[in-house]
Amino acid sequence: MDKTNRGVALVTGASSGIGYAAARALRAAGFDVFGTSRHTTAEGPDGVTMLPCDVTDDASVAALVDEVLDDAGRIDLLVNNAGVGLFGGAEESSLAQAQALFDVNMFGVIRLTNAVLPIMRRQKSGRIVNLSSAHGFIPAPYFALYAATKHAVEGYSQSLDHELRTLGIRVALVEPAYTRTSFDGNLIKPDRWINAYEAARAGMTVAMGDAIRKGDTPETVAETIVKAATDSEPKLRYPAGKLARQVSVLRRFVPASAFDRSLRKMLRLPV
């Protein structure tokens, strides 16, 4: 397919933030784009067909994929972007809350991937771009459960890419750092507050707010998603934005003790 007709893309969580910017950027890059939202009335970018989907529901995912196939006849790109954040000490969340988070951020990725892979295998081509995070490869105090979901997405994606290469399908990870979205305003709160964590949690709240205000725009991440989707020789990982690239390099080459001190200082935690 040429650059003016790159095929059919499906982007989850496309009604706002990174997903909205990605759907718009992929449309501009030549894809016929379908976006999803949990809400049936959600609007997407111009030229993007929006469809409802709950990534935690097998029937909803199956109905989505069937509708895209009925309309477009194929799926060439899946961008697994839908996700939620949870902010608090790991101990402050019940097991049920942790499971609900994994159901969206990890098992939602698996549901969509399993639904489109038979199509891509028949086509003998396709690409899957999974939205990870810098928290997918570094520690994330007070985001431990969220980071765990992103670490899981990283391990799954790396392994899946090896399984699919001989079938004409590739998997890539896009890893943003802090991004100027409503992420912090939409964070899930722990279902049991513990006073012992209050002081450190308060400092972390301030640090996170500052980092998001200074973070990359959703459009910066969207550009990286387009690159991951269209590279003729795709890489496994695509850090998105200056901070994500810096952290990726530092994590590999800086001694663990020095990286640990730097991380705690940045997050305003006692060193």
From TrEMBL:
UniProt xrefs under InterPro entries: NAD(P)-bd_dom_sf, SDR_fam, SDR_oxidoreductase
Pfam family, one: adh_short
Keyword Oxidoreductase on entry: yes
Molecular function terms from GO: oxidoreductase activity
Sorted UniProt keywords: Oxidoreductase
Keyword Oxidoreductase recorded: yes
Signal peptide annotation: none
Alphabetical list of Gene3D superfamilies matching this protein: NAD(P)-binding Rossmann-like Domain
Family to which this protein belongs: Belongs to the short-chain dehydrogenases/reductases (SDR) family.
Protein's name according to its UniProt entry: Oxidoreductase
Protein's organism: Azospirillum lipoferum
